[in-house]
Amino acid sequence: MNLLVLTSIYPQPDDEKNIGVTPVVKYFCEEWVKQGHNVLVIHNSSYYPKLFYLLPDNIIKKTNSKFGIVIPNKNQSKILNTTCKGVRCYRLPMLKIIPKSIYTEKQVASQFDKIESIIFGDGFKPDIIIGHWENPQIQLIAKMKERWNIKSSLVFHGLVYINQKKYWNYLKDKINSLDVIGARSEAIANELKSIIDHKVAPFICYSGIENRYFHNIDNQLSLINCKQFDSYLFVGRLIKRKNIDSIITVLNKIYLNEEFTLRLIGEGAEKEKLISIVENLYRSDNIKFLGYKDHDEVIEYMAMTEVFIMISDNETFGLVYIEAMSQGCIVVASRHGGMDGIIKDEINGFLCEQGNIDELTYICSKIRDMPKDEKKRIALNAIKTATKFSSSNVAKEYLENIIK
Q1: Once rounded to an integer, what is the mean pLDDT over residues 223-250?
Q2: Which of 65, 141, 309, 378 allows an S-S link to 269, with CB 3.0 to 4.6 Å?
Q3: CA separation (Å) from 93 to 81, 89, 343?
Q4: Where are the beta strands (DSSP E) in 157-260?
Q5: In 138-277, which ranges are E strands?
Q6: pLDDT score, position 63
Q7: Number of domains in the chain
């Protein structure tokens, strides 16, 4: 089949190294190519007025952190045409004046004309349209559905625009015109059901990890037995909504003068503030800021770590949780987020209220004091859960949810 994929976020060769662009759509596209499909990606990236890029770097970082967005670098305001692992991708930047504002009808119409010119110029006739993120995908896909009358779908990674009253009336009919809608977590799916009376219930669009990261049963036991005692890991952007300060506060409290290790992988606007907190607690020997690491390095750190913690606000399904589980980590994730329905408390991990210091203290104390056999049981269950999320399986299931 010919799959036309529209997305607001897609990793590109000229991305800054630590910009934090999620590769989730890229992974799906590469798997679909492996499964014999022809995939064309339209990356509807955002760029901002030139004056914005004259601001000091620390101001841009603070804007990123406050709004929970990724501001692309200036180079990404350029059109780009690439092919990687069989996936063709056109980056078609769109000017955005204010973060989290919706694109105008005029901008959407202009973007549609560009896309139509590209796909028919290439002789590409889509069988299915697949979208990720609300804006401008809702408007574009609804227009494509009306013009071409082919199967259309959209996956919500969060509800940013349809939750705003000023946009809801404009967007609701366009959403209802789509054949299938999906959500990146049960929490988002339930929220969608409460505000959208769609003809088909939203499916859950989980991500998968590469088969090479899974271990056979003998290696699983060896992996768990070689974990560093009292070791913790966070992987992600160092921004406010990730509640990293809560993790630091809790571990400092429960270990008092005892030794532990917390490794923080990632960059972000909160880094200097977090370093200051650690220094004021005299915990620089225990808490390490490792900066950006490539994917294989991250997996290596997961393999040596006992506990992975990320209790972010408004967290959708995060592939990093599944990766940590595949490496035998005991995962502590946000309750009412993307891991609801996947992690079950004290069975294959723990769920904690977003940023709740008291609950996180209870959970981390419980894990610290657990007998070794209990930790091993949870870690093995985590690995077993993760095996359901191989990239090939979830990509195939994703398409089946649209086609059926």
Answers
A1: 94
A2: 65
A3: 12, 13, 38
A4: 180-183, 203-204, 231-235
A5: 151-156, 180-183, 203-204, 231-235, 261-265
A6: 66
A7: 2
Domain that holds residue 334: 211-388
**76: which DSSP letter?**
G
Phi then psi dihedrals of residue 90, to 5 deg:
-110, 120
CA contacts within 13 A on the Cβ side of 320: 27
Whether this model's pTM surpasses 0.85: no
Q: Decide if 92 contacts 5 (C-beta within 8 A).
A: no
Reported confidence tier of residue 109, pLDDT bands at 50, 70, 90: very high
Give the list of residues 6+ apart from residue 214 with CB closer than 8 angstroms, or none. Answer: 326, 383, 386, 387, 390
The answer to whether 94 and 106 are in contact (CB under 8 A) is no
Which one of 170, 188, 205 terminates a domain? 205
The pLDDT, as a whole number, for residue 71 is 64
- At which residue do the structure tokens 């620390």 appear? 58
Output the CA angle 326-21-206, nearest 5 degrees: 45
Q: Report pLDDT for 70.
A: 61
- Say whether the peptide bond before residue 99 is cis (omega within 30 degrees of 0): no
Mean per-residue pLDDT, 4-13:
95
pLDDT exceeds 90 at position 329? yes
Query: Under DSSP, is residue 253 helix (H, G, I), strand (E, B) or coil?
Result: helix
